[in-house]
Protein 1
Amino acid sequence: MKKITVLGSTGSIGTQTLDVVSMHPDLYQIEGLTAGANTALLLEQVHRHRPKKVSVATRELAEQIRELLPPGTELYWGSEGLVEVAAGTEADMVVTAVMGSVGLPSTLAAIEAGKHIGLANKETLVTAGHIVTEKAKKKGVRLLPIDSEHSAIFQCLNGERMRDVAGITLTASGGSFRDLSREQLKGVTVEQALQHPNWSMGAKITIDSATMVNKGLEVIEAHWLFGLSYDQIHVLLHPESIIHSFVEFKDTSIIAQLGNPDMRVPIQYALTYPDRMSSPAKPLSLAAAGSLHFREMDYERFPCLRLAFECGKMGGTAPAAFNAANEVAVARFLKGEISFLAIEDIIAKVLDRHHNTMNPDLSAIEACDREVRAAAAAL
Ligand SMILES: NC(=O)C1=CN([C@@H]2O[C@H](COP(=O)(O)OP(=O)(O)OC[C@H]3O[C@@H](n4cnc5c(N)ncnc54)[C@H](OP(=O)(O)O)[C@@H]3O)[C@@H](O)[C@H]2O)C=CC1
Ligand SMILES: CC(=O)[C@@H](O)[C@H](O)COP(=O)(O)O
Ligand SMILES: [Mn+2]
């Protein structure tokens, strides 16, 4: 019986992780769960999966649910609560499915405690990739990718030698506004931005897909996960999201991973690795798909992707600054405070003013995150 903790169990990845766990009750047991503010869903999950420890975003929320928990369930809150649930149970694996850089300290704590990581929270590697990967190596824990593109690359690399790899290509759907010109982007609404063509995901990542920030974060995530240089990482527009990504080898052979867009597949693979099990996902019929399409990435149309590559190559605190500016700008867009195109403006302005610190430790990254958030909120 594998023991699993899910950080962010009430979100899109979190609920799908619990779906996978529920399909295999003989294989998995839930040790810990955390939510932000959705206490109603957390309570349902707690009564179903009986974790030993749970956490919510604030003390107030914790007090609201204290009496409603099954006897013996330990209750925590805030960032310390996340860390306690991440590190303080007997879990073998922690699935990191919280949204944003708030996931960093708990992921580090889980690694420090020797837990294997099912990594959905890409912001963790973007902000502190050098620290997270070094700690994972030192502790001998696996960083098993859940992000669909990285799971695809991980699967394509299975049994291969990294020295034989020429490069990898991450596919990008283009997001909700793939076929709109920059002129047409001026009038788009939050509701339109939240209509992803292929995937049903949390609000923040759906907006990130439309700005192509998501692919930018994924490029940096891939750099750290697979130890590849930025010149070996490419992005290709693929509207159908059926080829999830591919690896090109030195002999020109390409190995790709394909499937209908369904996150339960990469989530389950992270849980079962190196085994595979049957899945409720709809099998892919290439005959039914008929044709797949590809386009070169247009970096003028999607400038955030270019910025992400630049920040990745720069290193230091630049990727953390890129990420924090984006988190604030997206939250402001979702609240209706700024336009869609202002997300890019805010990121670009923040980066223009950013003083890069090379090889930052955790406190330098946290300071950068705080400073950039304040700057991005004021723009
Ligand atoms: N959704 C997807 O298909 C994919 C997601 N990812 C990545 O996975 C991560 C999660 O994405 P997704 O599931 O879409 O996001 P959601 O917004 O759907 O869920 C986020 C989760 O984090 C919790 N949360 C949010 N803020 C806080 C906080 N301050 N403290 C504690 N918990 C908090 C939420 O709690 P609550 O809802 O209770 O407030 C929720 O459980 C992101 O990093 C994303 O980039 C990667 C690939 C695919
Ligand atoms: C499902 C998943 O992994 C998302 O990160 C997805 O990649 C978003 O799609 P695009 O960013 O390609 O629009
Ligand atoms: Mn992805």
Protein 2
Amino acid sequence: MPQLSDVVAEIAAEMAARPDRGQVATYIPELGRVDPNQFAIAVALADGSVVEGGDCETFFSIQSVSKVFTLTLALGLAGDRLWNRVGREPSGSRFNSIVQLEQERGIPRNPFINAGAIAVTDMILSGHQPREALGEILRFLQFLSNDDSVFIDKAVAASEERTGYNNRALANFMKGFGVVDNPVEFVLGVYFHHCAIAMTARQLARSGSFLAHQGRNPATGHSVVTAERARRINAVMLTCGHYDGSGEFAYRVGLPGKSGVGGAILAIVPGKASVAVWAPGLDAAGNSHLGRIALERLTARMGWSIFGGSAAETS
Ligand SMILES: NC(=O)CC[C@H](N)C(=O)O
């Protein structure tokens, strides 16, 4: 078995040098200004240590990776009733698609496409002021990462607030079907801001650790969710975490994972590790181009695919 620290160093060196870097998202203008030549990888292990490579001190916009954590919070509030409002099947469509919503009477396919995540945010908001709901989401990430420097990048949130016509359409459409309870602008305000949470790769890897260890964060000893819930969140990440690129991600990487248009991916190696990668350039499905390749290298070298296979195979 190769040494993890060697593998991580090799991956960071390869990703820094590659010319194919994908395209940064420009539909949120503030994300369009991010330098695509950056790359970070952090692997949080069961003993609480983190193996790192690349730009691990740099804060990035976690965007849709935040949907893993809002789903976790909403399941804590609503339990399995959540699944009456949001499905758990892959959509086979782009992350911001509206096409299925009409046919399926406003019920989003899963909690990771934009429509589903907006419905989940609505559940967290119920009974609270937007500021309180947002504070709860931010504090949850500070608690999971065990680091109070996690923050909301107001410039990114404002940038999306100015240009988020598509998300407004999704939210209004669901409101028309009674799937969103709260005022649409309140729900979107919380949604845009939780997508604008900024973290480092180290913080993000630590935040996902509870999903790798049966609901318990091994670095802090905190129980976050039950083992059963962690398993189910991982299942939804595997099938839906990369939108219409989820099949390709499972095929190439073989881990539950969640991507965001800021270029981050959180991937879970059950029983072993929580991995955060960040490379701002995206592929055609809106997932990090080099982030996926880096994870593909990692699972092949370490034998970490959940589908089996030995270490150091070539892909
Ligand atoms: N895939 C993503 O990361 C999308 C999140 C982004 N905030 C949006 O709503 O469009």
